[in-house]
Amino acid sequence: xxxxxxxxxxxxxxxxxxxxxxxxxxxxxxxxxxxxxxxxxxxxxxxxxxxxxxxxxxxxxxxxxxxxxxxxxxxxxxxxxxxxxxxxxxxxxxxxxxxxxxxxxxxxxxxxxxxxxxxxxxxxxxxxxxxxxxxxxxxxxxxxxxxxxxxxxxxxxxxxxxxxxxxxxxxxxxxxxxxxxxxxxxxxxxxxxxxxxxxxxxxxxxxxxxxxxx
Length: 214
Description:
Layout: H1 4-21, H2 25-37, H3 40-68, H4 71-88, H5 94-97, H6 104-119, H7 123-134, H8 138-163, H9 169-190, H10 195-213
Helix pairs in contact: 1-7, 1-8, 2-6, 2-8, 2-9, 3-6, 3-7, 3-8, 4-9, 7-8
């Protein structure tokens, strides 16, 4: 039986994340995915799985990841992934010619991957880490934050599905690409790279390689 402290943890987690998600980039992503694919339920399923995985990892491993991995390397990898997605989403595919031929499984997979990556380093993920650090019941925290994400995004998905026929596909792709490009730029900026030090390190590595080879 669920106790009052458990319900408090769940409700606080739900409220914090639902409010943090309003106007966030992942909410915009949900709208764009719905407008592009016009398949609400596979998108909702993808958002649910991506959020459970992301927030589960954030709650259970957030502190360990922050200590074990180099933040600069992590942000550089994310910047590269977002850049690739920004280019990939501009490439016309079969969906642009025939929406009905788009596989529900493909929509689900695309939503899961893109939503999971977009949630990396997001304020709702950070909120999940903070909540898990202060609450004893990790399960209720993850359930609450996931429910908060669904509360904020499910109505947006149905809205995007309804207005999809009014949105030009090319414009939708461009906006989505700009969103991922912005995410890439933000991740690269957050990495706080010392370009001079990076160049010197690369030059020294190259010199060492050629010295050993000769």
